[in-house]
Amino acid sequence: MVRIRVLLLLSAALAGCTVGPDYRPKAASELGVPDAYSVTSATTAADLTRWWQRFDDPVLGQLVEQAAAANLDIAQSVARLRQAREALNQSRASLLPTLSGSAGYQRNENLRGGGRAFTLPDGTVVDTGGGGGANSFSLGLSASYQVGIFGEVRRTVEASNADYAASGYDYATVLLTVESEVARNYVLARLYQAQLENARASLAIQDDNLEIAGFRVQAGLVSSLDAEQARAQRAQTAATVPNLEQQYNAAVSRLGVLTAQAPGALKPLIAPVKPIPRGPATVDTGIPADTLRQRPDIRASERALAAATARIGVAKAQLYPALAITGNINTNATSLGNIGDAITGGLFAGLTQAIFNGGRLRSQVRASEAAADGAFAAYRGTVLTALEDVENAVVALRSAQERERQFAIALDAANNSAILSRSQYRTGLTDFTTLNQQEIALLSARNGASQARSDAASALIALYIALGGGWDATRVPDLSTTSNTLGTR
């Protein structure tokens, strides 16, 4: 027992020699993060966990939360997260000894000397001289322990732990992507509804214009050119309706699939025409450092770098000796009553050291270092792309809002011009070409205003996602927080 204790103490002391670099979180300056965005924005970050509620559209909120709970891409991410957790459990198991037990029973039968045995017709063997036999019982326990003198086991656990965290953040990234896709397609569905309403309103007016032109042609006040122009314009407007209906159907079908339903399941819910959702005019973006903490894809890249750094230590440990300890205890007896009378055991500790491998192990170290360099480059790239997303979304939102303001002016002017042109055409004060141009301008202004409002809503959604909204960034996602909780808590 004294030898065992000494050996275990010695192995524990040696296990403190962990090779390879220790991971150190990167400072914002090392990642190229500026102190502020180049576009003007508020410096106080807002809580964006449930950003869809800021649109004040209950149907939008219902669809986003339904997708967060049922979407199949999210379900796949949860499965990958479960796999990563089990890989971590397997790595942690390597820190502990492995124990196994065995038990056996054997019965030996011998024929006595001089005896005679024969076989009956039914196959039974008969010993005419009588026989004897012996029982044998055995129990055994064996243990093995890979000490990991230079930290290869602990570095493996460290890498698995980082991989598990990265899988959680990957899950959150998928969650945000699904939420944004639901919101974007919902906005598109409302846009196509608005454009269909615009087209049908124009068709009603153009039907009246066509009828008036026909009366004027019959009265000899104008040539048939007016009627043909009216008929052509009406047909062109009518031709846009099937295309808009097809786009509307595609958006609604996509919403059905995103919520893990049949493509047409949501048609009754969305069929009632509602305005394009309008969110707040401004969003508090905070400073770039806030985005680093909020975006799950950035945090996943950071954990991937930590895992790659830990694997350098795993590769370097292969260059040094490996210590394995094994032991066993066994007992044999002829009866269960005295199974513990005689116990034997053994303990073995062995060191192995690679002597020649053609440079393979050192090549593995260099490969691990290259992988860590690549992970760092990917980390920086993710950070810079995230900052780009934020700035582009801020500018896109402002652009759409300005276009919406200008289209409101254009729509008011086009509507007034169209009313005047209709009145003047009826009284013969203007020709149909002028009326036709004003009707085209009115439809264009209506569609432009709808498109600008849709673009503003889409840009606002993109900004929320670029800032990392839609999940609880205060915790690392794991299996206890992956069922409709990260985005809807």
From TrEMBL:
Pfam family, one: OEP
Compartments (UniProt record): Cell membrane
A GO term for molecular function: efflux transmembrane transporter activity
Membrane topology reported for the UniProt record: Lipid-anchor
Cellular component terms (Gene Ontology): plasma membrane
Chief subcellular location: membrane
Residues spanning the signal sequence: 1-15
Keyword Cell inner membrane applies: no
UniProt keyword terms in alphabetical order: Lipoprotein, Membrane, Palmitate, Signal, Transmembrane, Transmembrane beta strand
Keyword Lipoprotein tagged: yes
UniProt-listed InterPro entries: MdtP/NodT-like, OMP_efflux
Family: Belongs to the outer membrane factor (OMF) (TC 1.B.17) family.
NCBIfam families, per the entry: outer_NodT
Protein name, entry field: Efflux transporter outer membrane subunit
